[in-house]
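Posted in: Protein Modeling Q&A

I'm a second-year student putting together a small comparison for a lab meeting, and my supervisor asked me to include a predicted structure for exodeoxyribonuclease III. I've never done this before, so apologies if this is the wrong subforum. The sequence is pasted below exactly as I got it from our records. If anyone can share the structure token output, I'd also love a short note on what stands out.
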Amino acid sequence: MAGNTDLVILTVNVNGMNSPIKRRQIADWIKSQNPTICCLQETHLKQGDTYRVKVKGWSKIYYASGEVKKAGVAILISDQAKVKIDLIKRDKEGNYILLKGSINNEAISILNIYAPSGMALNFLKEKLRELQEEIDNKTVIVGDLNLALSELDKSNHKTNKKEIKEVNRILEKLGMLDLWRKLNGDRREYTFFSAVHGTYSKIDHILGHKDLKIKCKKAEIVNAFFSDHDAIKTTFNKKLGG
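Accepted answer (user: helix_wrangler)
Welcome! Here is the predicted structure, written out as tokens:
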């Protein structure tokens, strides 16, 4: 981990993990980033193939995968962290996984989401409604939401303002804030390039509850050379509960 007082959460859309070479690249990259919690989206691993993911030092791995090679999410937790899991909720198609429990004796909930392209807003509406009773002031939501949360999250000015307003209405109702934007203000930085549209966007996010007791002191976008997405990395103080 980044230090005795830090809790580091890293999230990245890996764009597939079925290649042994790529799995090795991802494992080496995770070790170099040294997060407490690492959340992956689009693993493309079927339910019977998740055993293939092995990262030395991150042996606690929780998956949600479907029956075909698409979607798929995973949460890896450092062996240095003391972990207690009280609840796991998995999407049967592998689009989200929720862990509720504690890390180093402090309560936390992690919701890792992959919102499918082309239906992201409706997907988020449906799934966050299903999970709303589990989302509280201990919750961090991470993942590839396939949505910009601000006009600043797009490199062009042709943003869907109605969509941005709607997704923020949903998140505000749950008390969730974009932690990267909170710390980086009006800065423009992106996690994904769409060759089809010729635009850059920040569609990968780490969100925290507005009453989250942990203090997010750093949020950055880091390169993930093996994917078409870059990663989001946030550093919190260690104290989670108050």
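A couple of things worth pointing out for your meeting: The radius of gyration is 16 Å. The CA atoms of residues 27 and 55 lie 5 Å apart.
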